[in-house]
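Practice problem: predict the structure.
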Amino acid sequence: MKRILFSAAAFVTAACLFTSCKPKTERLDDIVKDLSADSYSLSFDKTYPDYGITKTSYGAESIIAYADPEDVICGEPWRIRFPKSSVPIFKIPQIVQPTCPIMIPLDIATRVEDVLTKADPVGFAGLKQLKLVDSKNVLLANEKFTGQFAALKPDMIDDSVLNGLDYNKFLLLEEPGNLSPGFTRNFYGTANIPDNATKTNTITGANTNFVKIYRPVLIGCLDPKILALIKERAIVFKLTTPTAWQLTTLGQDSTIGVLSKQ
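Answer:
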């Protein structure tokens, strides 16, 4: 009987060797196949077919989400000046950040993280799940992304052009490496653009449909009165000219303003 049991065990062992008896790695394509396109966003430099990463982009092409400055480890000068301000995390086709984070629903974040770290242990080393404000999604990011926030600090734009303004009523976005005169970072303000645009019926649908707002020459968005004042002050401080920035409005009641470059 012992000989029979040993032979059976040996057979199973041999079978495992020939059929690769090991846990099957999930494929990204399978994990996200049932998600709506506007509920997540992933971008990659290349594909990893063996792990079901068959495209360089999944989900929404445009996102604006908001993170806690403590979670993305903003520097002390920033946290002292703006203790309750969220940090906008954005991906817009016309404005590409040096390292784009991955936004994914919380309930599948661990599964996606596992696939990525197996697909590229070096490139995705140190991934962490960062909570987003008022969202069911999380960011999957490492120090390559969060490291950019450590040097954030108030600058001349905060102290002059934006002095005394409610940061929740506007959001200025700038292209990294191509900042407007006087700008030292690629965002100012904390307005929730998707939420406000949807509530005011300016745009129906998800982030992917915000084409009228996310235009290539976008400077700022939301409260038209605030944006008009920002433009006026920028002209006074000789950061722009009267004709270089254009303010237009969207929506049935013109409640959404868009400040853009000519």
